[in-house]
Amino acid sequence: MGNGVDAMRRRFDFLAVVVFVVSLTTVVPGNVAHAAADCTSASLQPTLAESMVSQGVGGTGTAAYVRLTRGEDTLVKLFLTLPCTVTGSQYVRITNASLQVSSGAAANALFTSFATTPALPATIQPESPADPVFVVPAVNLRLGAAGSSFTATFTATVTYNFSDGTTGGTGTTTKTFPDFSKSFDAANALRVYVVPMGDRSQPYITQYTAVDQTIVQNAMQTLSRIYPTSAGLAELSDTAATTGVRYIVDTATMLDLKSISNAYVSSGGVTKFCGTSTTFSAIKGLLAQYLLTYNKANRTRTADRVVGVVGGNGSPSGPISFGTENNNGCADGMASVSSAESWIRLVADQLPAQPSRSGALAAMEVAHTFGLEQTASYHSPSVEADANTDRSYNASSRSRIPADHSVMNFNNTGSLWNNDTTLLEA
Hints:
Layout: H1 2-12, E1 24-27, E2 47-54, E3 68-69, E4 74-81, E5 91-101, E6 109-110, E7 133-136, E8 150-163, E9 170-176, E10 180-185, E11 190-198, H2 204-207, H3 210-226, E12 233-235, E13 245-249, E14 255-256, E15 264-267, E16 270-273, H4 277-297, E17 305-310, E18 333-335, E19 341-345, H5 358-369, E20 393-394, E21 399-400, E22 405-406, E23 422-423
Parallel strand pairs: 3-10, 11-13, 11-14, 11-17, 12-13, 17-19, 22-23
Antiparallel strand pairs: 1-2, 2-4, 4-7, 5-8, 6-7, 8-9, 8-10, 15-16, 18-19, 20-21
């Protein structure tokens, strides 16, 4: 079981590019920007200016991920343009599109709506309504033996209406573009042991609640989306699982934060846990012991990492910890940069439209345990994951992230840093 840890550690290594990377973009040869001539009947057809196969951040050059993960849901986007300038009543309007992939026969769902029959732009746009976007399900990206790499070939076809401005020059037709291929590499599972933390002298249900359990489940889903692991979640006990993130919440125990000196502070007449660097050494030591004990008792289903969680959401007194929103110096999470221990606060979704940030916190803190960022602060200086290229996508929600965030930089510039807006950087 140790090989999984070693391999995952190598994936986090800070190399020329972060090896934890999961998408590629192809620029189709011959589509160099130039002054377009007026359209003729023959040239009134869509051009595939660029194709993007993405598991998070697309783009070109250093702004793009450079490896794709086997067995993970993947977005494929076609950037369509017109090779000429329409005049008068000429147009080309996309009405439908389809995608086939050589490595699987399941449907690759088109989630772009062409109900308005959008016209093609002259140049690539970040979010053109004429650009087809497909979801290639994980089952289509598992060719060959488990653990092997492979190359998938994609074939895209579009249906479009056209008019050359004359009475007889109007119709509907299809066009199939040249194939494009991408390689997919085998990924290692990440096995996480989750330990509730709180005041053991209080009723368990006030320290770790049903709401907290849901937040943990959503956090693990976010971890699966952000990391280059195969799709899906599984119980850590499922030794036959093929999913990338496997975890267990040990609801039979609770790490007693009250036993740690100065772990609780009072603010505004309320006393709660406050995570600081001062208390982390003690928490880290306790988490390490919990992980060791668990792995000794479960030698066939060991964990690679241990994450402590602090909740209390939905209890009569509310969350049992202070955090960054309280502006009193209490952290939302901490991690070792040289061993397996980290902890996070469980933050509930807030209305309107404020998703939890606990999944992003888990992704950041677990990444610290692999030494992903080697800056002085162990955080990235970059606010955005895509270097401002507007090529960030949330594969789970099937949508572009207009104001994306590096998961390694807790920063609310442009949008809230949370489960929906964060990605590993290209």
